[in-house]
TrEMBL record:
SUPFAM superfamilies: Bet v1-like. It comes from Psophocarpus tetragonolobus. This is Bet v I/Major latex protein domain-containing protein. Residues 2-153 form the Bet v I/Major latex protein domain. PANTHER family: POLYKETIDE CYCLASE/DEHYDRASE AND LIPID TRANSPORT SUPERFAMILY PROTEIN (PTHR31338), POLYKETIDE CYCLASE_DEHYDRASE AND LIPID TRANSPORT SUPERFAMILY PROTEIN (PTHR31338:SF16).
Length: 159
């Protein structure tokens, strides 16, 4: 049995792909203010939250447990609305040798529909560690929380 794998999920959103991409590429520090499962984040290294050399420290809940890790961007592709992040350190390193997340904001054929696709590439430290399905669930919930927040903002702006 291989210890490496790749899993993904697509989450439909009510706001635009552009708005969600903007949050993750330019306003990442706001996620902790609207996502229930993110308890805190801070800039650990670097001067800017959104450059490849910055490192963020996250505290979050997965599978009912409060965990911590570090995250850094590997690449940001504005044209394809795609961000690749490396997740490492602390609780991640206890279970995974490799943990890479790809976030992609996708516009569908109908302009009023869009989705977010999360992909996790991972390598577990042993066969006793389960694939990170709980992380996909957490990312799904984070998108739902942010999407709800953006929709409420838009409704408020339209009044």
């Amino acid at each position: 049995m291989s210890l490496a794998g790749k899993i993904s999920i697509e989450v439909g959103i009510h706001s635009t792909a552009e708005k969600l991409f903007d949050i993750f590429s330019k306003k990442l520090h706001h996620v902790q203010n609207v996502a229930e499962r993110v308890h805190g984040t801070k800039l650990h290294q670097g001067d800017d939250w959104h450059t490849n050399d910055s490192v963020k420290h996250w505290t979050y809940t997965v599978d009912g447990k409060t965990l911590t890790c570090y995250e850094s961007f590997e690449s940001i592709d504005e044209k394809n609305k795609t961000i690749i992040c490396k997740i490492f350190g602390e609780d991640i390193d206890k279970e995974f040798k490799v943990f890479r997340i790809t976030f992609q904001a996708i516009d569908k054929n109908d302009p009023s529909t869009a989705c977010i696709k999360w992909t996790i590439e991972y390598e577990r430290v042993s066969k006793d560690v389960h694939p990170p399905h709980g992380y996909l669930e957490m990312y799904n919930k984070i998108i739902e929380d942010i999407d709800d927040h953006l929709v409420k903002e838009q409704e408020s702006d339209n009044k």
